[in-house]
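Board notes (copied after class):
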Amino acid sequence: MPHVMVKLWPGRSEEQKTKLTEAIVKDVMTHLKSSESSVSVTIEEVKQEEWTDKVYKPDIQAKWDKLYKKPGYKP
């Protein structure tokens, strides 16, 4: 605990994903006072044409009241 899930379009390098993961872990440790060994991060690439059905509808639209940062777009 905690587990952070990141979903994004394909195209980022492994280096970018690794650096993002390191930054997320660092911030989780700082702000939630978690140990590094308790933090896990997944990065899932979702094709642009599948974004609405696989991400927007189930993870954003259906959980609007739980979002701490809402997107500035609608599909």
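Comment from the instructor: The domain at 3-66 is CATH 3.30.429.10 (Macrophage Migration Inhibitory Factor). The first strand starts at residue 3 and ends at 8.
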